[in-house]
Structure formats: structure tokens, C-alpha cells
Specification:
about 475 residues, alpha/beta, Rossmann fold, Four Helix Bundle (Hemerythrin (Met), subunit A), 3 domains, 4-stranded parallel sheet, 4-stranded antiparallel sheet, 15 helices
């Protein structure tokens, strides 16, 4: 299995630190709102990497954090007049719903930054003791010039970076020794959540959080660290610096980064009005379609999101689901008899699709080519299998196809049709729950309908529904 390592800028043979085991850390979202489809790409991509590793027989310890203390969370809390904890807890719960709808497996551990403050204070103290960090009036900075390998991940030249940041050194306004020194701990401002530390009552910088959570749940050295390419610099670069200076060991062996997601060939942004949350997409499509769309391109290729491409993904996914559904129907009606000679030969052909799938995934997780192998199998199913075949033969092909789709996290069960009167009854129950202020039950009914492909829309005229 070869993986592209951002650190070395080349594909390398994957060899884990411990045979048969993989330690993997993926930077998770900052939880101040519903996750957007840009957040969804690394979630889906690296969930698929994990699934494939497990398919290959590895035991994967998969850690993905929630950043639950941040300027944006605090701003949202002030805006709503609630605590930062209430905001983060609300959107962690919503994020987990979206992840489940995209069939993203729960991580082995989902650590919260606020629960690991003690470890952060400990790591910062070690960095100060070793001379890699310094305290100025309660703010602790990391000395980038002390780490000789700073810039090795982003392949940026430190002198060029400093030259471009000299404007940051304004007398009396910036207390840093160097413009590229970054914050490890900052004193609290009025109304912000804070924790006691040897330097000030305050909170950690963003970069130190992931270093500490990775170390606690995976160890000082890990196999894979992953995230979006926007995190390469400065976040991952800074993680390497503080982790390696603290622990005296290489931090991560392989660095994997997914490329950006554009919307109609433009960068996604609220100002352009092309900003979509996963929840909004889920009102138009089954989120399995979004997953399929995300995997239809190689994870290191920029991906363009558009209504046309989503429709094409929906059609493609339906082709696979229909083929699987036809196999299930044939299995239910097939004769239980011995495999014929032709069927045995045909199974060799079916096994070739599995080999092609594995070869694609072994080549830096090329999901686009892996999906092509599944479509070759769909064509094979549609042209070679009928009610004349034995139950054993059809079941074997069905199992192979479902297994390959499962490795990609693609659910191939056809959703049950739901009658209009049943939908109306569930809407009535939801309205009654809302009237009784049982919002948990109301949300559960809405989610149950969404799982059946029914989207609700609350309007002034009442609740309207449509099929996704």
C-alpha cells in the first residue's frame, strides 16, 4: 500500500510503527455552527482510509477531536447570550447527527479540547523548561527559531517567512521575540471562559490542543496525521514543532491532506452566497449521495461541487443500489443447487473486480478508480446473472459487491417507500411534540422521516414535505 506523504512530497510504502496496528489522528471541526460541506470532505475521505485499513486487517486507533473553545464559539455564545459550553455541546451533537447521516464511523476517541487543559499546561511547561517557549505578561509563545526543522512540512523557507512578516514587529504592540513565534497560552478577556495556569488565567492556543490530544490517545509517535490542505501551514507545521521539541521524537510518520472543495468553480464563502452546510444539502439529497460525490474524485484533487454533479452522483449511486437490489431479489427466488462449472469460472471474473478495487485503494486511496471497479461489477451483474443461476452463486456475487461498497462507506440498501398517510401521521405527532415542548421527540421524528428520504419544511402555512 502506497500513500502520498506531504512531508516528503512523494508516495511511500505504508509501514506502520507497530505491525498490524495503525494510529491515526484527524483534525476535527471547531463547533460553533452546523458543519459545512468543506468540513465533510476530510471526514468522509479519512473515514474511508480508516475503513480500507480495517479491510486490510489493521487494527486502527482513530482519533478525531472537537475544538470546543475558540474565538468563534465565544462570539456565538455572546451573540446568543449563552455559555460557550452550551454552544459547543449543541453543535457537537448536531455534527454527530450529520456524520451518522454521511455514514462516517464514530472515532475510537473524540476528545474535547476543554477536557485536556491539564495536558496542555504540562506540555507548555516542558517547552518553557527546554527553552522552546517563553512567557510575556501571561502570554506564552513558542520560539520558532529554536526548532531547526521548522517549515519541513509546508516546505516554506523560514527566512522568507520572517521577511514577509516583519511588519508584525511593531514596537510596543507586539511582545514576541520573533514575528513567527506563535501563541501556546493566552490570558482571558472579559467574559471569556478561562482556566488557571502558572502564567495567567486564560486558555490554550489552537495548535497546542491537537499536539496534546494526539499524544494522550495515540502516543508520542503516530503513523498518520491527516486533515485538509488548509491546515498544512501553520496548524500542522506548528504541531510538529511543539510536539517534536517537547517529546524529542518524530511526531507523525505520514501526513495526508485532502484538497479544497470549490462551489461552481469558486471558493466557498458566505460573502459569495455559495456556502452550504451538510444539513442544507441533506434537505435536497440523501447524504449518501454527498458521500458518493466526495469519493468520485481522488482526495488530493480539488473537487468542484455543483447541482449538476450532485445529480450525476445521485444517478450513479442509484445504478449501484438497483444492481444490488436486483441481486437480492434473485437470491430470494433462486434455486438452492450446486455451483455449475460456468458459475465457478464466472466467480473468477468477479474476483478480478475485487483485485482491481484493492489495487486502486492501495495506490494512495484512489477512490475514483475503486468506484470504477464497482461499476464494472455492476455491468457484469446486469449482463451475466439471472434467475437461472444458483442461490449460492448469486449470494457470493452479492456479498462481494456489498463488501466493496461497505469499504467506501456506501450504503446500498434501498430505502423503503413510505405512504403519504404515514408521513402525515408522523407530521401530526411531530407537531404535537413541539406543542408539548418535547423538542427531542420532534427532532427524532424529523430525523426518522429524513432517513426515509422525506424532507420537512416549516412554513407559515404549515408543514410541507417532499421527497429528497
Amino acid at each position: 500500500m502506497k500513500v502520498y506523504n506531504t512531508l516528503t512530497k512523494k508516495k511511500e510504502e505504508f509501514v506502520p510503527l507497530v505491525p498490524g496496528k495503525v494510529s491515526m489522528y484527524v483534525c476535527g471541526p471547531t463547533v460553533y455552527n452546523f458543519i459545512h460541506i468543506g468540513n465533510a470532505r476530510p471526514m468522509i475521505v479519512f473515514d474511508t482510509v480508516r475503513r480500507y485499513m480495517e479491510h486490510k486487517g489493521y487494527e486502527v486507533n482513530y482519533v478525531s477531536n472537537f475544538t470546543d473553545v475558540d474565538d468563534k464559539i465565544i462570539a456565538k455564545a455572546i451573540e446568543e447570550g449563552v455559555s460557550a459550553q452550551e454552544i459547543s455541546e449543541r453543535y457537537i451533537a448536531e455534527c454527530k447527527k450529520d456524520m451518522a447521516a454521511m455514514n462516517v464511523l464514530p472515532a475510537t476517541t473524540h476528545p474535547l479540547a476543554t477536557m485536556e487543559i491539564g495536558g496542555m499546561i504540562e506540555m507548555i511547561s516542558t517547552l518553557i523548561e527546554k527553552g522552546f517557549a517563553y512567557d510575556v505578561n501571561g502570554t506564552v509563545y513558542f520560539r520558532t527559531r529554536k526548532f531547526d526543522e521548522y517549515g519541513k512540512l509546508s516546505h516554506k523557507n523560514l527566512d522568507d517567512l520572517r521577511a514577509g512578516n516583519r511588519s508584525l514587529l511593531v514596537s510596543g504592540e507586539d511582545q514576541k521575540e520573533d514575528p513567527l513565534d506563535f501563541v501556546l497560552w493566552k490570558p482571558k478577556k472579559e467574559g471569556e471562559p478561562a482556566w488557571e495556569s502558572p502564567w495567567s488565567a486564560g486558555r490554550p492556543g489552537w495548535h497546542i490542543e491537537c499536539s496534546v490530544m494526539s499524544k494522550k490517545y495515540l502516543g508520542e509517535e503516530i503513523d498518520i496525521h491527516a486533515g485538509g490542505e488548509d491546515l498544512v501551514f501553520p496548524h500542522h507545521e506548528n504541531e510538529i514543532a511543539q510536539s517534536e521539541c517537547c517529546n524529542g521524537k518524530d511526531f507523525a510518520k505520514y501526513w495526508l491532506h485532502n484538497a479544497f472543495l470549490n462551489i461552481d468553480n469558486r471558493k466557498m464563502s458566505k460573502s459569495l452566497g455559495n456556502f452550504f452546510t451538510v444539513r442544507e444539502i441533506g434537505e435536497k439529497y440523501d447524504l449518501q449521495v454527498l458521500r458518493f460525490f466526495m469519493l468520485s474524485a481522488h482526495y488530493r484533487s480539488p473537487l468542484n461541487f455543483s447541482a449538476d454533479l450532485m445529480e450525476a452522483s445521485k444517478t450513479s449511486l442509484e445504478r449501484i443500489i438497483t444492481a444490488v437490489d436486483n441481486l437480492k431479489f434473485l437470491v430470494g427466488n433462486a434455486e438452492d443447487k450446486e455451483l455449475s462449472l460456468e458459475e465457478k469460472e464466472s466467480l473468477t471474473q468477479a474476483a478480478a473486480f475485487e483485485t482491481k478495487f484493492d489495487e486502486a485503494m492501495d495506490d494512495d486511496f484512489n477512490t475514483a478508480d475503486a468506484i470504477s471497479a464497482i461499476f464494472e461489477m455492476v455491468k457484469y451483474v446486469n449482463t451475466n446473472i439471472s434467475g437461472e443461476n444458483s442461490k449460492s452463486f448469486i449470494q457470493t456475487v452479492l456479498d462481494k459487491m456489498v463488501n466493496l461498497c461497505d469499504v467506501l462507506g456506501i450504503i446500498v440498501d434501498k430505502k423503503e417507500e413510505i405512504l403519504a398517510e404515514d408521513i402525515e401521521k408522523m407530521i401530526e405527532d411531530r407537531q404535537a411534540a413541539r406543542k408539548a415542548k418535547d423538542f427531542k421527540k420532534a427532532d427524532e421524528i424529523r430525523d426518522a422521516l429524513l432517513a426515509k428520504g422525506i424532507v420537512l419544511e416549516d412554513t407559515r402555512e404549515g408543514v410541507k414535505w417532499k421527497k429528497a
